[in-house]
Amino acid sequence: MTVVETLLVFVVAPVVLYLAIWIGIAVRNRSGRPRHEAGEPWPYEPLFWIANPAGAGHHAPHAPVGGSDERGGTGGRW
Fold first, then answer.
1. Rounded mean pLDDT of the chain?
2. d(CA 24, CA 18)
3. pTM recorded for the entire structure
4. From 5, 49, 69, 70, which residue has the greatest number of CB atoms within 10 Å?
5. Which of 45, 65, 48, 66 is nearest to 56 (CA)?
């Protein structure tokens, strides 16, 4: 390999690859999509995820305590 080929493979090619990735990210970030800025009112309804539905007053179905579990699952008890 000559010095020019070595420079093309190990210097120019990675620089071109990094520039292509950077340009792709920069163009995507400058698109005309509306962005939420701090201090603006949130235009959507609140959506909450509740890990404990019983704590929020929602009753989730439970497996029977003494009988067989028709839903399947493990045999352990909480």
1. 76
2. 10
3. 0.40
4. 69
5. 48
